[in-house]
């Protein structure tokens, strides 16, 4: 395949569309040669891929080398998940090793 025969497009809603057309290559015909099977050498094709939300659309690159199309879709670098931080609880009951009990004032709620 040649570069002119393939098209890579970014459509609405983050859809990447690869399309193209294979054209028949002229082959030498040898007199007296018979074919038992021949591969299809012509035709149109297309494929669509919905890209994820973390794809960087401005940096998509495509490369055609030796008949192989390679499309690179970079993604946004994810932040490393932060470790949970342990918070010390201060109070008289915690220091003495006793149970913490709620007072009536701590448990009253205003309902309107």
From TrEMBL:
UniProt-listed Pfam families: HSP20
SUPFAM superfamilies named in the record: HSP20-like chaperones
InterPro entries for this protein: A-crystallin/Hsp20_dom, HSP20-like_chaperone, Small_HSP
Keyword annotations of the record: Stress response
Domain SHSP span(s) in chain numbering: 1-90
Family: Belongs to the small heat shock protein (HSP20) family.
Protein name listed in UniProt: SHSP domain-containing protein
């Amino acid at each position: 395949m040649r570069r002119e025969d393939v098209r890579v497009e970014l459509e609405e809603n983050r859809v990447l569309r690869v399309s193209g057309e294979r054209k028949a290559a002229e082959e030498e015909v040898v007199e007296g040669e018979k074919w038992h099977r021949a591969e299809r050498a012509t035709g149109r094709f297309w494929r669509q891929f919905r890209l994820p939300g973390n794809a960087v659309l401005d940096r998509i690159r495509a490369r055609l080398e030796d008949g192989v199309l390679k499309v690179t879709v970079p993604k946004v670098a994810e932040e490393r998940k932060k470790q949970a931080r342990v918070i010390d609880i201060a109070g008289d009951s915690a220091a003495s090793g006793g149970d913490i009990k709620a007072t009536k004032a701590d448990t009253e709620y205003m309902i309107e």
